[in-house]
Amino acid sequence: MLWSKLFIPTLREPPAEAEVVSHKLLLRAGYIRQVASGVYSHLFLSQRALLKISKIVREEMDAIGAQEMLLPALNPAELWQESGRWDVMGDDMFRLKDRWERDLCLAMTHEEVMTSIARGELRSYKQLPQIWYQIQTKFRDEMRPKSGLMRVRQFIMKDSYSFDLAPEGLDISYQKHYDAYCKIFSRCGLSYLAVQAHSGAMGGNESTEFMVASAAGEDFVAVCPECGYAANLEKAVSTAKPAALPDPEGNLVPEEFHTPGYKTIAEISGFTKLPETSQIKSLVMVVDGKPVLVLVRGDHQLSATKFSSVMQAREIRPAQPAEIREWFGAEAGSLGPIGVTNMTVIADSALEGRRNMIAGANKDDYHLRNVTPGRDFQTRFADLRQSEAGDTCRNCGKGILELKKTIEVGHIFKLGYKYSESMGLRVLNAAGEEVTPIMGCYGIGIERILSAAIEEHNDKDGMALPVSIAPFTVVVTPVNIADAAQKQAAQEIYDSCLALGLDALLDDRDERPGVKFKDADLIGIPYRITVGKKLTDGLVELVQRRGKTSSDVPVAEAALAVKKAASA
């Protein structure tokens, strides 16, 4: 292709609204343009890169026996009502009505449609297992779209679904996807982590996220450098750092003391001259309409994900001030577990075995000292807190956890029977009995891969994309297109590149060399062949975008040199 004939609207400076590196470069390099908040047009270069990513995904999915389909983005409400997710998805789902006032939605994911197809067509165990996939546009009404293509309202996903007769079959399908995803992300040039994750609204009891470390990410992952344990922060388990001060000795009796105007954990710590680890933090949550008092160590944070899982809750929210006053007779900041009999009390495991701590007295401006969990109030203990950097890895017992900010590029789930059961999917087993198939689902963000690759591979001059997903592999750049010898040599090298199957671009623009070089660096082409003054010696310059290394090669060998380098 000839650069002069292409639409590549590069910008010298990024628009003011762009914050993360990938967003800035996607705009500057002319890959995308915004249509509305969280909605982008993919221009020529972006589409080429996304098609290459999709090709890699298709190849690896086909390799595990998956079959590609294409499902409608417009779904009837009835399917989502059958699964129970019509209400669960809340405001994140785009909803609309047709001319007959029937409820419809724009699909965020396709478990319901895939299950309805299986329900209508699968009859026997002999038809299992099945793995079906698609690469489709999905929709989510994000409250705050941001970071370019990483949090948007319209996005491209590969989603696949497995149907197996028994859990052992699901284990095999899940592992197939795990292995395929590792190959996909490696081929796309990403350095990734596979981490334990929470299934959320998808359902199921096991899931793995594939994450790329990046300051632009929105998720935190806890990683053990000793054993390699890795988990999303909302799911991570660990042993808490010891309390800053040992608990007082003795079987002391709870004692009320005045704390005028002091409400927060930090304020009480300053007032008592005792560390936050010596306090019990009391949080009031409403779980499926009923109040629950949740206790964690003063310096710890509650993991909403763990709490929801322990409580097996459908809906959780913090209690309102008026509710707290009604239930406790005091304001938040003076709450504690002693004397609470009108609700469930649950405590984090880090409080088990502690004694003589400080807690609220359920009386404004008063607290209690010498509070011992399990003695002064009844509770059950569970892992409720959010892990922190510096905790000890519970997997190996010796590693100290580190936190990494990450971008999620893929997520695989063992769905279990959530959809097949609720939507009535049945097949006959070998004995002629009706059984419910077990399901898995597996997603990859196509645009997320591109964004993550840019975040991982960039410098001050622009993108340095991996060969496998760059819009072009090599650009042939004559320094002076008006020079007949340079123009002819550039054309011959370009033709040789095409003959070798290279995705080549010829920069035939009548521009200064510096402009051409900057544009090539900006849009992320991995290799540049510069045809310049050394042509009289039979040489051209081969420049590798990543690392900016260069070497002189004979004109006749330039295309082959790129072929070898790109294949290495």
Q: Overview of this structure, please?
A:
The protein is α+β, with helices and mostly antiparallel strands. The chain has 3 domains: 46-209 and 407-451, Bira Bifunctional Protein, Domain 2 (BirA Bifunctional Protein, domain 2); 255-382, Alpha-Beta Complex (YbaK protein), CATH 3.90.960.10; 472-567, 3-Layer(aba) Sandwich (Rossmann fold), CATH 3.40.50. 26% of the residues lie in helices and 29% in strands. It has 14 helices and 33 strands. Strands 3, 7, 8, 9, 10, 11, 12, 23 and 26 form a 9-stranded mixed sheet that branches. Helix 12 (484-499) links the parallel strand 29 and strand 30 (504-506). Helix 2 runs antiparallel to helix 6, helix 2 packs across helix 11 and helix 12 (484-499) packs across helix 14 (558-567). The radius of gyration is 29 Å and the shape is globular.
Descriptors:
Rossmann fold; globular; 26% helix; nine-stranded mixed β-sheet; YbaK protein; 568 residues; 14 helices; alpha+beta
